[in-house]
Amino acid sequence: MNSIHPSPGEPGFGTGASLFIDPRTCIDCGACADICPVDAAQPAEQAAAEDVERNAAYFAEKEPLDATDLDSWEAPSYQVWGGGPRRVLVVGAGPAGMYATRELLLRTTAEVTLVDRLAQVGGLVRYGVAPDHPSTKQIIESFERIARHRRVRWMPSTDATELQDSFDAVIHAVGARRSRRLGINGEDAACSAEDFVAWYNGRPGAALPVELVGPRAVIVGNGNVALDVARILLSDEERLRRMDVSQSVRQTLAASGIKEVVLLGRRGPDEAAYTQPALQELLTAAGDRVELRYHARPTDWTSAGLALDDGTSIAAGNLFTAIGFEGKPIDGLPFDPDRGIVPNVRGAVVGHPGHYVAGWIKRGARGGIGVNKACAQETVMALVSSSRGPASPGS
Question: Is the domain of 268 the same as that of 377?
Fold first, then answer.
């Protein structure tokens, strides 16, 4: 979102020990702090007071930038795919697909057709981000502006299968929507994070597959999604009223009777995948009603609760699984079932000229919203710098 400075082309790029985050354009996704290889970016609550003051001073005299004003950006740092309009199909309007579309508009003269099986852009930002994190969802407005660009044809609620032969190149940004399974007895009676998150976020066609039963729920998983599920389950009526959820979702959660959550990690706390801010948010809001349990492997889920491999059990009314997501095969393309990705080299699909991937289907289900920007840039770079030039996907 062009919120980190100095960026390439700006004075001081690569010379300082700190990066400055522009609060006017930052969407607070936390990706920069998570992936910065030299720890030059930190959440404000973890930064020293003098660093926060330096950050504010850095932007005091600077004009705010519109991160979605594509025409105001500087010239690209790599080869432009020019020579007249080319036709590119982008499949998927989640973060990876929208960043890929944005890069194509910045770096090429291509005409982009953007399709998605859903009726709106946003993907997991719209239907995966917790409803008590509205600031993170602000990026959807930027995605909608990209979809309205004069060189973009936006086709919502569309199956892309029959369209692909009509384009010079196809970028598949279909994500990894399928929840991983525990592989235990009785798991079919549990609720996956995919289903629960889709339900409370109002994804079209989503329904809650289980009845919520208090007073205790168990969540298997130690990532941010598991913490999101716990936080939503333990929200009181006042907090629920402040969330962007439907009345029926609010009523169901309020009536659930769930007063306690056990977060179950199959590995140790040093291997937990959640971020510190996410854990702190949960513990601040409902710390006395959350139990963190590690090195515990479930074996059976029954109406009596969850049995563990050490012979103990946890009495609970609901089991939620949040152990990650995996990609699904794409018709006509190779697939690596162990990694859940389409085999690729920097986004170019192996053995299939003209086909590219971006996002989780490219690199696996890891990384937050912001990581998709660099991922999409790499894919578009591979597309525009191909020595063969644009190739028909059917060739």
Answer: no
Residues 311-358: tens digit of each pLDDT = 999 999 999 999 998 999 999 999 999 999 999 999 999 999 999 999
- Measure the CA–CA gap between 300 and 309, rounded to whole angstroms: 9
CATH number where 357 lies = 3.40.50.720
Closest CA to 281 of 126, 124, 125, 130: 130
Tokens 């009495």 correspond to what residue? 315
Eight-class DSSP state of 92: -
The β-bridge relationship of strands 169-172 and 216-220 is unpaired
End-to-end CA distance of the chain: 36
Neighbours of 207 (CB within 10 A): 8
Which residue type, as a one-letter code, is found at position 38?
V
> Chain-wide mean pLDDT for the chain?
87
Distance CA 235, CA 356 (A): 42
Whether residue 364 contacts residue 339, with contact meaning beta carbons closer than 8 Å, is answered with: yes
Q: Are residues 166 and 94 in the same domain?
A: yes
- Who's near 247: CB < 8 A, 6+ residues apart? none
CA distance 334 to 329: 8
- Integer-rounded Cα Rg, in Å, for the chain is 22
344 sits in which H/E element? strand 344-345
Backbone angles phi, psi at 203, to 5 degrees: -65, 135
Distance of alpha carbon 85 from alpha carbon 383, whole angstroms: 14
> Which structure tokens are listed for 317?
């009314």
Instruction: Give the tens place of pLDDT for each residue, 150-162.
Output: 999 999 999 888 7
- Same structural domain for residues 89 and 204? no
CA–CA separation, 230 and 290 (whole Å)? 8
- pTM metric for this prediction: 0.82
